[in-house]
Amino acid sequence: MHIVVCMKQVPDSAQIRVHPVTNTIMRQGVPTIINPYDLFALEEAMRWRDKFKGALTVLTMGPPMAEDSLRKALTFGADRAVLLTDRFFAGSDTLATSFALASALEKISTEFGAPAMIFTGKQTIDGDTAQVGPGIAKRLGLNQLTYVSRIVELDQAADKIVVERRAEGGVQILSTRLPVLITMLEGVNEIRRGTLDDALRAARAKIITWNAADAGITDLTLCGLRGSPTIVKKVFAPSPRAEKAHKIPTADVPVELLAENVISEIFKRQPAVEGDLMKFSAGQ
Amino acid sequence: MIEERFDAIVVGAGPSGNAAAYTMAKEGLKVLQLERGEYPGSKNVQGAILYANALEKLIPDFREDAPLERHIIEQRIWTMDDKSYVGMHYRSEDFNEERPNRYTIIRAQFDKWFSRKVREAGATLLCETTVKELLRDAKGKVIGVRTDRDNGVAFADVVILGEGVNGLVGQRSGLRSELKPDSVALAVKEMHFLPREVIESRFNLKDNEGVVIEAMGTITAGMTGTAFLYTNQESISVGIGCIVSDFAENGATPYGLLEAFKNHPSIKPLLANSECKEYAAHLIPEGGYNSIPELYGDGWIVVGDAGQFVNAVHREGSNLAMTTGRIAGETVVWLKRRREELSKANLAEYKRRLDETFVMKDLKKYRRIPAFLHNNKHVFGLYPKLVAAAAQTWFRVDGADKLSKEKEILKSFRKGRTLSGLIGDAFKLARSWR
Known about the structure:
heterodimer; B: alpha/beta; FAD/NAD(P)-binding domain; ETF_beta_N (chain A); electron transfer activity (chain A); electron transport (chain A); transport (chain A); ETF_a/b_N (chain A)
């Protein structure tokens, strides 16, 4: 069984800062990581790869430095890594990204065998759209299962997959046929460390690098900024709503009364909070 | 388990491990380097000053692409009391040379660069891989390492331990005892960001010129230690460190000392309006010559901080690390070429070569200094106060005649430390310095 995981290198959002004057994101010097949601997809994919003794390819689109993320995925235990990189891809929105990735996936199918499953994380932490996975599925005509929390059953012979999907107000149990595109939910597994052999293999591996032409893309107007109808009108950092803040003076309050003082002050200003808390503790 | 056998396994990707791995890989040896951090430099902390000479011996043209901050044209050495400093400054246009002698660096960036050079030379680096213990054969010769990864065993003819100050692998494998609190310093530092122009006008610099300040005195609250302030391109590194056993005895906190140092009237204006974006702490082995552990054995060599190679008096460490790493690498290459075994008897060559370098000569010269400072704490409290008071007496114009001022200064010293104390200190220091 061939499985592909599509992942993205993203700036570590925990360390990103917004420029106080220009309101733009300061990317300089911010470390990059594998999109954390993609790690759940990767681990899930590796478990099924191990079970069926299949092969796992990781695919990413990004600048040349995205190679670091692919190498890391190899350290975790992926078998093969493909980097899709070309200046024509710069400025891609989700439409253009899913086009480029779908093209690369077709090339992967002919080169390394058609994947039975394609995994992605449920969304990225930088764009947060959750559109690229479904976009790929639509372009490749795959069945799509989004927000999957568990793969209950996978029967290759019967060509059947059953999953649990998180939905509003409950869990759906869905069944469909392969090949399928799955976007994995967070917290469903924990990425493995990878053996020493995996680490050595990753350190020496050659990352397969394709540009647009290599991926079989002929119409460059569908790529990058030109292929992206999304227009970013404005980027801003929400300002702290200071006018709603109340300062609770504590300077003259003895230490032992401090907590009580602050809490009663909060209750005085927000009576509803007290009611909610009472209800909550009664329910416990 | 890695089936393939390596010529050498290097533990750690800091200056010493990188120097060793680079030297061996460049000569065609098969080198596996293991680093516990996420990337080389992620666990490393230093002031930091790079002494060019030690790196030049490895990578002569490092200036072309290494991430260097500022070359140092001015050194300030201060003794401080609570309100003042008495300083010796040396600034020279000679330091604006084609191949400057000292640079400030930011280790996270520098170590990444150094590691890239090591990998380009042909070594294989695995990060996020912690070596847990050394593997030995029936005769006790070290034949490889066990890591924290699954199937995590790898074999080599020699293991070079550049694992840093804690030296846990060596300790666990019985090569050395635990660090002693009185031979290790705990240092804390912060990075304060300021626009380049502000730094240059504050310190009277242009282009990539830099200033460093090393300070001692009442700022360490009577403990053995020093503080520093280094100028980078767009930031200032400021830190302070003292011997761990002194911290334990004194009860002072490292961050408390740093706060006080930053707020000292002589330091505060230098940091005004800066933004602290990073803080770090690290141990520094400062026991000197007498605390150097066993440096080699059957199938193993120790380099860098793990071997206590720090010259605390001159604030040198990374250059000693690079030099010991290079010489360890050269020794292994030399033995391999001659098809000699990497036995304890043959690896004694490492120590012989080291004895011929500044590393051992300097550490030997200052071997009595740690004990002298440990037993003469007034060097850090009383003397800075006396010196500052003397300077004030001397410079204040108040109608008193100069001879009376001289007498007053002498009297203050004799009152503070008695004549025999003063002579004794001078004698002991001279003897330690020799």
